[in-house]
Amino acid sequence: MAETTYLEAIRQALFEEMDRDPNVFVLGEDIGAYGGAFKVTDGLLAKYGESRVIDTPISEAAIVGAAAGAAHMGLRPVCEMQFIDFISCAYDMLTNYVATARYRAFLPCPIVVRGPSGGYVRGGPFHSQNPEAAFLHTPGLKIVYPSTATDAYGLLKAAIRDDDPVLYFEHKYLYRRIKEELPGSDHVVPIGKARLAREGKDLSIITYAATVWKALEAAEQMEKEDGLSVEVLDLRSLLPMDDEAIVATVKKTNRVMIVHEDTRTGGVAGEVTARITEQAFAWLDAPILRVTAADVPLPYSPPLEDFVLPQTSDIVTVARQLAAY
Amino acid sequence: MASRTSSRGRRAARPRVAPAPAAPSASLDRTQKLDLYYYMRLTRSLEERLVNLYRQTKVIGGLFRSLGQEADAVGSAYALDRTKGDFLSPLIRNLGAMLVQGAQPLEIIRQYMAKADSPTRGRELNIHFGDLERGFIGQISHLGDMVPVMAGVTLSFKMRGQDRVGLVYVGDGATSTGAFHEGINFAAVQRCPLVVIVENNGYAYSTPTSKQTAAADFRDKALAYGIPGEQADGNDVLATYDVTKRAVDRARRGEGVTLIELMTYRRKGHAEHDNQSYVPEGEIERWAATNDPVDRFVAHLTGTEGVSPDELAGIDARVGREIDEATDLAEQSPMPVPADALTGVYADPPSAEAPWYRRGVASAVTAHERPAAWGTFNG
User: Fold this and answer.
1) Cβ-Cβ contacts under 8 Å, A74 against chain B
2) Among B199, B102, B195, B72, which residue's Cα sits nearest to residue B143?
């Protein structure tokens, strides 16, 4: 079977879900005739026409709000944010309207909001963001952030079929760099389940999205150079978070670090840390350490961006300290 | 310099340039007109009952009145076709529109009393609730947000080829939000079957329209969206019905969005606590004396329509009975069970987990934890 890129996996899931369910439609900026800024939606317009592939005005609040209204009426909209950085323009709609709809008004709101996320691409402060932490503390939303083509495919299917609103972050650095054989058609990855990306026994790296690959690279290097056996847990769902998998890896290796590309203060790592101290403190042999972006807006120039974002060498440095503690 | 509002006083609707074709209200029969009266009277009396309950500290939280605006809510909602599944999203002064769409006084009172069997089970306040079956959808407090949402509701009508129309209410203040602009523009581009009503009642909380917009009329904003803009006397229930009905018919014919500005006046404060110190002297009294929508419609019914005062008194008595019955029932309703707060955030999982220190706790708050200054709730 041919290999499928991370981007093609997303596109394939969109085609298959639109085929499977006539209630699924997509809307966003430049997604129709142009096929999207990254061509994720390329070909959808030709197949499904303008009523199911809607080119919208530059109006993120209207895109999400209209999706919510349509979802109340039984449709299953998939919204594209041209860059996920622009999701902040719909923050009110997502946190106040969409996330609360079921709780306050018993309104179903099965929408997906997806978009190219993340850095390492010289995109500067407004085309590189990782906004997951801004939504992590909003009950009513679900958040997924896949790192492999298989998970990109399977989590998008799960997101579209989910009866609640799902934020689906896709990493643009991985779009065309990651490719693999998909495990057959209609593979659905359950939301809320982490994936053990690499088994190990000396220490655990808990991470998600692009830094999964950096963690794997670091793990390999440490195996060769230090003889360390490093476990890598890919969270892939951030909300709900897989506490069971987190606690299992803590109990197995007793040394944990958390790696993410997003900035440090108030980031996902802090939440994971709190959960570990509440549920598995007695199993820790060392403090929980973090490798994250520095607390600055992401700069554009390569030496600057590389300095701010977590790199494989950072992970190795911190992991060695953790192992030696 | 005094604001435009206070120097010139609140204006009545700008006269139409061309004479209107036969008014849709001409085909309303006597029963339908009495129906309009019933809903206006019910709105006013129900709110008066809520004021009593508020003063008895039985209403929890704020109380929002639509005194003087009953005609615009009732007349516009009445222009929808409920047999076709038309749909509306009210704002805080559209209790009348919700009643027309089928909301019950019992639901309203239970909502205001935060009861377990209120439509939102005590999760949301006042008239923030909806029902997809009856065709109204609960607003949120963020003004303007319901415009994009109703753009989506009506987009679904269009996508499915349904013969349904949507109506969304905003106030003069909400037109200043980004969501209003994004939503109406989106709906206009998509030619959604949507009617957008701007209730111009002169004030957004304490802010007069002159500080809300530099536009002479809100209806002029329609020009920028490439849609028809209408203006009507919101205190004339038949004029309100007419202008909305024409827009609803246009939407049903596939001709897209209409923006309607209804000229009215908010005679009470933003909510009951608001003493309206910012209102020019005499303004409220002048509207009450000369431009009360219920008085005006009563004059029309007893004059032009030849309805007897006794018949209207009969409707008033029916309204009073319905409100009394609803009040009695609502007072007997239980308060919510605390742990119900954890259910229904998601379809799956169906319930959130309580923090460990709350597990098995039936009531989280004891009397000493809730000083009187926190509010009126004392249960």
Assistant:
1) 156
2) B199
Residues of A carrying an active site annotation:
127
The pLDDT assigned to B9 comes to 57
Instruction: Provide the pLDDT confidence category of residue B379 given band limits of 50, 70 and 90.
Output: very low
Count of structural domains within chain A: 2
For the segment B36-59, the average pLDDT, to the nearest whole number, is 97
Average pLDDT, chain A: 98
Contact B237, B293 (CB under 8 A): yes
Residue spans of the domains in chain B: they are 26-332, 338-374
Predicted confidence at residue B373, as pLDDT, reads 60
Structure tokens belonging to residue A210 = 């692009």
| Cβ within 8 Å, pair B159-A103 | no
* Tally of CA atoms within 13 A in the half-sphere of B159 that contains its CB: 30
Bridge partners of B200, per DSSP, are: B263
Q: Check whether B3 has a pLDDT greater than 50.
A: no
Give yes or no: residues A30 and A99 share one domain. Answer: yes
Q: Is the pLDDT of residue B372 over 70?
A: no
Tell me how close the Cα of B346 comes to any Cα of chain A, in angstroms.
Answer: 6
Q: Does A176 touch chain B (CB under 8 A)?
A: no
Distance CA B316, CA B40 (A): 10
Domain at B26-332, CATH homologous superfamily: Thiamin diphosphate (ThDP)-binding fold, Pyr/PP domains (3.40.50.970)
Task: Report the pLDDT value the prediction gives residue B378, as an integer from 0 to 100.
Answer: 52
Q: Which positions ≥6 away from A95 have C-beta within 8 Å?
A: A135, A138, A141
Q: Determine the Cα–Cα distance for residues A93 and A60; give it in Å rounded to an integer.
A: 9
**Same-domain check for residues A115 and A211:** no
Convert the pLDDT of each residue in B325-339 to its tens digit: 999 999 999 999 999
| CA gap B197, B172 in Å, rounded | 10
Global ipTM: 0.95
Domain end call among A148, A180, A212: A180
Range of the domain at A244: 195-324
pLDDT tens by residue, A69-116:
999 999 999 999 999 999 999 999 999 999 999 999 999 999 999 999
Most A CBs within 10 Å: which of B156, B162, B185, as the mutation test of the A interface? B156
Beta carbons of B152 and A67 less than 8 Å apart:
yes
Q: Which two tokens stand for residue A187?
A: 């593979």
* A62 located within any domain: yes
Q: How close B322 gets to chain A, by Cα (Å)?
A: 25
Last residue of one domain, picked from the residues A134, A150, A180:
A180
The per-residue pLDDT for range B6-29, each reduced to its tens digit, is 334 566 676 556 655 789 999 999
Question: Per the confidence metrics, is the pTM higher than 0.90?
Answer: yes
Q: CATH no. for residue A312?
A: 3.40.50.920
Residues 6+ positions from A137 with CB-CB distance below 8 Å: none
Residue A320, in any domain of the structure: yes
Which stretch of DSSP H or E encloses residue B32?
helix B30-55
